[in-house]
Design a protein that fits this description.
The complex is a heterodimer of chains A (252) and B (419). Chain A has eleven helices and ten strands. With 252 residues, chain A is of the alpha+beta class. Helices cover 50% and strands 22% of the residues of chain A. In chain A, the strands form two sheets. A five-stranded mixed sheet of chain A has the order 3-2-1-4-5. Chain A has a five-stranded mixed sheet with strand order 8-7-6-9-10. Chain A folds into two domains: 4-118, Nonspecific Lipid-transfer Protein, Chain A; 143-251, Nonspecific Lipid-transfer Protein, Chain A (2-Layer Sandwich). With 419 residues, chain B is of the alpha/beta class. Chain B folds into two domains: 8-63 and 317-413, Alpha-Beta Complex (Aspartate Aminotransferase, domain 1); 78-314, Type I PLP-dependent aspartate aminotransferase-like (Major domain) (Aspartate Aminotransferase, domain 2, 3-Layer(aba) Sandwich). In chain B, 39% of the residues lie in helices and 14% in strands. Chain B is built from 13 helices and 13 strands. Chain B is globular, with a radius of gyration of 22 Å. The chains are: A alpha+beta (252), B alpha/beta (419). The A-B interface holds A 155-157, 159-160, 163, 197-200, 218-221, 223-226, 229-235, 239, 242, 245-246 and B 10, 13, 17, 21-25, 29-31, 34, 36-39, 43, 160-164, 168, 209, 360-363, 366, 381-382.
Chain lengths: 252, 419
């Protein structure tokens, strides 16, 4: 069963937070946002706030309310946010009316770019290596950040998280993709790797990473071929894999 | 020491991957089997004989997984094979059961301490499931208690909530307690009067991924008393340990008597058969449960099981495997120490578990196991290992040589702080 609160949390902290990575990878996004300063807070009842700070063409995502916001977008409930992500409803600004122009033009443009990468044109994915690289990194980011939301909020995810011991898991695809998931009374994700990781999930390429996460490749076959490998504390990896299956149910 | 290469393996795996989900699924597959890294392991067997497994690339392994338990006398055991062949000539899967079914039941009743009857199936999971149904049929109660890490098969009630395909309702009547915690079991019984149908447990804790743990002093006698006092059916899942610790059952080995006891794996030296045995009081309940399968009463595995048990009795297989296991693991621990590593051995010697404790993540252990496999000792990383009766002192000495060279390779390849 899909819980709309969990989905909304995924939409905030896995999908929209990807704007941060988008502005690091995509020059068009950087150009679009350059020269504009704005910090947008997304407020959904029952869900940690997300604040996206745009400055000098870059975006920084922050969870909670520690970072000040110049604009507040309030949503009446989780469904309201989820419908906005589908383009079926608008947010309700309660602060920062002078930034509405930014919201409608620059932010909406960046969100469209993000959508282009997360729902990619298959032909372009196969023919444009740069597009493939960015789409895969952003998609993988979404999947692993979503895994944390599922682990922390979804009942099945919570049952799986209970079987992941405290500590970190490094997920890598060479130098192209590196995230670290840490269970410390809840699962969190950050870019990069931990020197003290207890478990390791490695993909030999972005092609394998993207193929497995999109369901185009059989992950178990990839393990047999050596394209995907695990080592360290295997129960951590095993339950992360099960979390990713649950993520698929939310994102499909 | 030379290390193995696998060329045909990869060709065959590609063929498998084209037509079989995962290529090789389940516990024999490189993923579930924790082949880390997969490049170190064979994937497909060409043949097997005695203590050895030969892969499709012609490499020979001393096989310490024993097909995950079934190989107890040695692969292709001549006497067992001959008994199976004789039955096969008469008939195997037929419209009516053969005399061999009755003969095996008689032998089990005469051999297994807690057996007044025997009921047959194919896999261990068939009979652990039947035991659960029998406990509920007998008591009219819902709840089943098991211990953390206890593997009893793959039916939905045996799996964990959160595993793909498993619903909360599948496991809503299953209560899981930590191993050796009598206080929690007592507490559970007190809080659920008249609700607990059965307790299912392996004779000692031998979970995959974690160290094995023997029953604490007095644990089983107290569990037995509490089950009797509260009308809880005591089910011993002896699928993995059965016939390796004691032919009379692992409950007998640990000094208590199960109500129901489940066997498979080693019972027929690799021929597919499982048995649920039990005390007289449960005969009617098990008979009332509707449970069957197309191949459950095939005659050849019964004939193989009869011969396997006869041979195990003749050679005192459990004592032999205990001695071999103890010798092997003591030597491995000593060799580890000479290289500055610590090998923790747990469980019973005939199906021991082992783990290098020198790093928290287990990466060093995985590296050492891989180096052993590359040199011809087939271990897996995170499952207990098995001794069989075909193993010899020479095999153990060869394994020590392999382990020694493997430790040297690990020392060379993995920077480690001096202890």
């Amino acid at each position: 069963m899909i819980d709309s609160t969990v989905l909304a949390s995924i939409n905030l902290h896995a999908v929209l937070r990807n704007l941060e990575t988008l502005t690091q990878l995509d020059a068009d996004a950087e150009d679009l946002l350059n020269g504009h300063r704005c910090a947008i807070r997304f407020s959904v009842p029952g869900i940690d706030r997300l604040t996206l700070t745009f400055d000098q063409g870059r975006c920084q995502a922050a969870r909670g309310e520690a970072v000040p916001a110049s604009m507040n977008l309030r949503f009446s409930n989780a469904d309201h946010l989820n419908l906005m992500i589908e383009g079926k409803k608008n947010p309700l600004p309660t602060k920062g009316f002078r930034s509405i122009g930014f919201l409608k033009r620059q932010f909406a443009g960046a969100a469209d770019l993000l959508s282009m990468y997360l729902r990619p044109d298959i032909k372009r994915l196969k023919s444009d290596p740069d597009f493939f690289r960015m789409a895969t990194v952003l998609f993988a980011n979404t999947a692993f950040y979503a895994a944390a939301e599922v682990a922390n909020l979804d009942p099945v995810g919570q049952a799986l998280l209970a079987k992941i011991e405290p500590g970190s898991i490094n997920v890598t695809a060479g130098d192209d993709f590196q995230v670290c998931l840490t269970n410390d009374n809840g699962l969190s994700v950050r870019q990069g790797s931990s020197a003290a990781a207890k478990a390791f999930m490695s993909f030999d390429s972005l092609e394998t990473l993207g193929g497995v996460l999109r369901g185009e490749l059989d992950g178990f076959v990839c393990i047999g071929r050596g394209q995907m490998s695990f080592k360290g504390r295997i129960p951590m990896i095993d339950n992360l894999n099960k979390l990713l299956l649950r993520v698929e149910a939310y994102l499909s | 020491m030379d290390t193995y290469v696998y060329k045909k393996r990869d060709e065959l795996f590609e063929r498998a991957a084209a037509v079989i989900p995962s290529g090789i699924y389940g516990h024999l597959g490189p993923a579930e089997g924790c082949f880390i890294p997969t490049s170190a392991f064979p994937f497909f067997a060409e043949r097997a004989e005695g203590a050895y497994l030969y892969d499709v690339d012609g490499n020979r392994f001393i096989d310490y997984m024993c097909a995950y338990g079934p190989n107890v006398l040695g692969y292709n055991h001549e006497e067992v094979g001959e008994a199976a062949r004789r039955q096969w000539e008469k008939g195997d899967c037929m419209t009516l059961p053969a005399e061999s079914m009755v003969e095996l039941a008689e032998l089990l009743v005469d051999t297994v301490d807690s057996a007044d009857w025997a009921y047959f199936a194919k896999n261990g999971g068939d009979v652990t499931n039947l035991a659960m149904l029998t406990a509920r049929a007998k008591t009219g109660r819902d709840l089943i208690v098991k211990f953390v890490g206890g593997y009893h098969g793959v039916a939905p009630w045996m799996q964990a909530y959160g595993s793909p395909g498993i619903l909360k309702s599948d496991v809503s009547n299953i209560i899981t307690l930590p191993w050796n915690r009598l206080d929690l079991f007592r507490d559970l019984l007190r809080k659920n009067p008249g609700r607990i149908a059965g307790l299912i447990s392996t004779p000692y804790s031998h979970p995959a991924m974690y160290d094995s743990e023997l029953p604490a002093e007095g644990f089983w006698s107290e569990v037995r008393s509490l089950c009797t006092e509260h009308g809880v059916v005591l089910i011993v899942d002896d699928v993995r340990a059965g016939f390796r610790l004691d032919l009379r059952g692992s409950d007998y080995y640990y000094g208590f008597k199960a109500d129901l006891i489940c066997f498979s794996k080693a019972i027929a030296n690799g021929y597919p058969v499982a048995a649920l045995c039990g005390q007289q009081a449960f005969r009617n309940a098990v008979g009332a449960v509707f449970n069957t399968g197309s191949f459950w009463l095939s005659a050849v595995p019964f004939a193989a099981a009869i011969k396997t048990i006869e041979v195990l009795k003749k050679i005192d297989g459990p004592a032999l495997m205990h001695r071999l296991g103890e010798k092997l693991t003591n030597g491995l621990s000593d060799i580890a120490q000479t290289h500055g590593f610590t090998l923790l051995v747990s469980g019973e010697p005939a199906l021991w578990n082992m783990r290098l404790t020198d790093d928290e993540s287990g990466v060093l252990h995985q590296a050492w196991v891989a180096e052993c496999v590359r040199r011809g000792a087939f271990f897996t990383n995170h499952h207990n290992l098995f001794i069989n009766c075909a193993m010899t002192d020479a095999d153990i000495e060869k394994t020590w040589e392999i382990a020694d060279d493997a430790f040297r390779a690990v020392r060379k390849n993995h920077a480690m702080k001096a202890r």
